[in-house]
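Hey team,

Filing this mostly as a record. A colleague (T.K.) asked me to run one chain through the structure pipeline before their review meeting, and I want the input and output archived in the tracker in case anyone asks later how it was produced. No errors, nothing strange. Just documentation.

Input sequence:
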Amino acid sequence: MVAAAERSAQPAAATPARPRSSLGFRYSLPVLLLLAVGFIAPLVAVIAFSFVEPRSFDLWSEPTLANYRTIFEQTYYRSFLWSLAFAALTVVVLAVICYPVAYGLARVFGRWSNLVTLLFVLPLFISENVRLYGWVLFLIKGGVLLGGVKALTGIELTSILFTPPMIVFGMVYVYLPFMLFPMTLGLSMVPREVTEAAFDLGASRAQVFREVELPLAMPGIIIGALLTFVLGVGAIVEAKVLGGQSVIPITHDIEIAFTYAQNWPLGAALSVLLMLVVGVLVLIVLKRFDLDRILGRR
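Output structure:
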């Protein structure tokens, strides 16, 4: 009895803890499977189709570079340049427009910030096509704006629809939240004490902006710019609805290849080149910034 009591009084052997790496892998397995099925598998399929014979659907045929030769032999490079130019111009315009608004949301508006944020979020609940066709009805000849001006003044103005500037306008209008909110987050990370200390030391407003606010808010600005650029390169609705196909972006060529032309290998090759071009440009931009220093890791 005494021996049994002594054995029961002894602490039970501790169960060996599982390595954290094993637990982390098990917990992340559903996400990894979702990425594999929803992202990696379609990407591999697109890359494989780009080496198939033109206007063919036989993935097991002998690989060929005919689709890539077609791209470089024809004028698809113009569509690439138009898409990249529109996306870059949209980023620049939105950076100029969004910075004052983001500064107001982070520092000035106070309790009204939630209301202002809601005003920018509400359009996202309406289809992009509906919003863009609303602008068409507003700006078309004889529409709300030009028809109203003619009825009131008798002056007949020329519509600016179906021109390249209207494509940029549509992209700025659609992608504004994707630049504004990351930029607002970046500016909200700038401590007020730092800017106040800079003013106390005699720095001008321009110096505080250039040497304090801009570097500290750079993570949000970079994220917003990259997000807007990637979305802008893939824009197609703005060129169709507001541009009237006055300019053909690369995404329109990809759509034509996959649908009307039924040339999936060519569309896949265009998609692969677009991903490569955008990926290289994004890596070049990221390489010019020390992300560890910007994010405060050292």
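Quick notes for T.K.: The chain has a mean pLDDT of 87. The first helix runs from residue 2 to 9.
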